[in-house]
Amino acid sequence: MRKITQFNTFCGMFIMLFSILACTGQTKNNSEVINAEVSIAEVQNDLNYLSSDDLMGRKTGSQGIEDAAVFIEDKFQTYGLKPYFETYRDHFMINDIKGFNVVGYLEGSDSKLKDEFIVIGAHYDHIGTGKEVEGDTIANGANDNAAGTVGVIQLAKYFAENGGNKRSIIFALFSGEEMGLKGSKHLAEKLKEEDLNLYVMFNLEMIGVPMKAKDFKAYLTGFEKSNLAEKFNEYSDGEQVLGFLPQAQQMSLFQRSDNYPFYQVFGVPSQTVSTFDFSNYPYYHHVDDESEFLNAEFMASLIEDLIPGLVKMSSSAEKEIKMNE
Hints:
Layout: H1 2-23, H2 40-50, H3 63-79, E1 82-83, E2 89-94, E3 97-106, E4 116-123, E5 128-133, E6 136-139, H4 142-162, E7 168-174, H5 182-193, E8 197-204, E9 218-220, H6 228-235, E10 242-243, H7 246-250, H8 259-266, E11 270-274, H9 296-313
């Protein structure tokens, strides 16, 4: 009986110790558990505003995109993100049209790694108006790309509140995307002139609805160009967060979003995360691209799934994400 009692006591102590380690996010392999919770209500509310008729389709140079920029700036300021430049705005011209990116910044916590940067971005502009349907001409751009904008806002909130980034992070919302990637091209060239040490550019585009019949949560454009997806899934404890979509390669999507200017200018892993798979959303550049047709619960879940990978990307001792030869 005494041996049994001692054995039970030992088991109880072992279970208690394991529980304590699990609660602190550590096990015998010292892996960190990252639990992030994104508010579905916040995602829905921000999505509703950014794709509302009040913003008139957020065309670059319009009052609508001005209002969207103020909304983003207020969020960044509330979270405590610094402006990367003198203000949050990074101005440029497209012929006679005044455009501006909104650029926030969170310094890394490591004295050496903070000189390496990750850019997390999305475009917040849209096309303004589209072909009339039942009297409606406002192309609200909910999935394209209020959804990606909300994703960047939520990621900025997480890192501002929780830290975990040894490298510095730039949170960039681009305008002029719909006019030929103008805003991202301007910012990439400007940062290159500053000799910024860019590690990865991570772009969000059209993430408002889940993919159909896939074993991964979102796809990565330019999948074969780097080991980003492989490392990201590894960082996510083996979860298949990012995958390969053949149509993305066939449609040259790698070259068609704001990741591309950073790839051209810096030659580092610069890729876009998306869930628009050509079969799950019929309203591309359509006046019915409105928030009521998006899935805020899925978006919140996807953003939560992106956080562990981004935390580990921003804190790894070495630059493990690399271009493929």
